Amino acid sequence: MADRVKFEDGEAWVTIDMDLCAGIAACVDVCPVECYKLVDGKVNADRIGECIECLACENICPEEAILEHFAW
Ligand code: SF4
Ligand code: SF4
After folding, report:
1. Which end of the chain has fewer beta carbons closer than 10 Å to its terminal beta carbon, N or C?
2. What's the whole-model pTM score?
3. Which atom of ligand 2 is nearest to the CA of 27?
4. Which ligand is nearest to the CA of 57?
5. How many other CB atoms are found less than 10 A from the CB of residue 14?
């Protein structure tokens, strides 16, 4: 059962499958505007409102945990 969590700020939002997220922080490291951080070993995207739509996070996540991502 997927544990999909939605983070949103204005028109920007992302959903992340917390069952798949392995907390390896690749998305944290790759995001140029620091949208992500780790909280208790899982990703948190409370700063998704800063997103510039580069899609680097989706592309780098080896677990494909970042399922949907829209900032437009
Ligand atoms: S890159 Fe994927 S698995 Fe790693 S912390 Fe980010 S969402 Fe989780
Ligand atoms: S799309 Fe780019 S700017 Fe937006 S959260 Fe992902 S890595 Fe950060």
Report:
1. N
2. 0.92
3. 7
4. 2
5. 24
